[in-house]
Amino acid sequence: MTSQQVWLLDKKFREEKIEETPYCQNVTKNHSGRLTVAHIEKRRHLTVRWNKRNAVVLCLGCHRHFEDNAKEFRGWLLDNGYTKLELKELRRLASNNLRDAVYQDP
Ligand SMILES: [Zn+2]
Questions:
Q1: Which DSSP state fits 1?
Q2: Confidence (pTM)
């Protein structure tokens, strides 16, 4: 997979995700900035990079806040439709080491 293909898939994934959920899902906080797609397991894990359950729509402000507060993000996920089992399953899928086999950063 080339970096161009990854870029195109990222773009499509982001557009579809935001079309499905056109608002910041963190409804209790003050928002700022454009809508972004926040990954639960990091994007470097290609096995879950385009998995819709591995991502939530957040405004840039909330995205940055959760990036700096991983524990709070996990708690928020559990309060917003994710189960511990599902988060564990995403972790398991992410740890399948596809990355090195098919993708290298340019
Ligand atoms: Zn927000």
A1: -
A2: 0.86
Distance from the CA of 1 to the center of ligand 1, in angstroms?
33
Instruction: Output the CA 17–ligand 1 centroid distance in Å.
Output: 15
Can you give the residue ranges of every domain in the chain?
Answer: 3-102
**Cα 22 to ligand 1 centroid, rounded to whole Å:** 12
In order along its 106 residues, the chain shows pLDDT tens digits of 889 999 999 999 999 999 999 999 998 767 889 999 999 999 999 899 999 999 999 999 999 999 999 999 999 999 999 999 999 999 999 998 655 445 545 5
Please tell me the distance between residue 102's alpha carbon and the centre of ligand 1 in angstroms: 34
